[in-house]
Amino acid sequence: VMAAGRVLQVGPPAEVYARPRTPFVARFLGLANLLDGERVGHPGKVVMARPEHVQLNPLAGWPGTVTAVTFLGSDHLLDVACDNGVSLRLRTRPGGAAAGDRVTVGLPQE
């Protein structure tokens, strides 16, 4: 992946998608939730979670409200405003939640 004439990351596509080295690379290759590491126990870092890896209604997580639902054919993209101030996008099957629903979202374990 290059930006402004500089090589930012080299590697197999699946590896670069799963482990981007910069926020630019993460966003260049698809949707990405980029979080302040303070919120998730990694101070001084930016933590990335792809929407397909964020969990809807896990046993533990962050409560919030679904603010938007985007139809993507076999999936829906949910925008969730968490009560702690974090906004997350997650990909789920249709019928998982509707705009205005209260949900809990969980980040994948490393």
Layout of helices and strands, plus pairs?
Elements: E1 2-3, E2 6-7, H1 13-18, H2 23-28, E3 33-36, E4 46-49, E5 55-56, E6 62-71, E7 76-82, E8 87-92, E9 102-106
Explain this structure to me?
This protein has a five-stranded antiparallel β-sheet with strand order 5-9-6-7-8, with no helix packed on it. It is globular. The chain has 110 residues and is mainly beta. Helix content is 11%, strand content 38%. The model has no long low-confidence stretch (mean pLDDT 93). The two termini are 24 Å apart. The chain has two helices and nine strands. Strand 6 and strand 7 (76-82) form a beta hairpin. It has helices at 13-18, 23-28, and strands at residues 2-3, 6-7, 33-36, 46-49, 55-56, 62-71, 76-82, 87-92, 102-106.
Spans of at least 5 consecutive residues with low confidence: none
Estimate the helix proportion, in percent. Answer: 10-25%
Beta percentage is 35-45%
- What is the total tally of β strands? 9
What's the main sheet like? 5 strands, antiparallel
For the largest beta sheet, what order do the strands appear in spatially? 5-9-6-7-8
The secondary structure category is: mainly beta
H and E string: EEHHEEEEEEE
Provide the residue-averaged pLDDT.
Answer: 93
Number of distinct helices: 2
- How far is the first residue's CA from the last residue's CA? 24 Å
The coarse silhouette is: globular
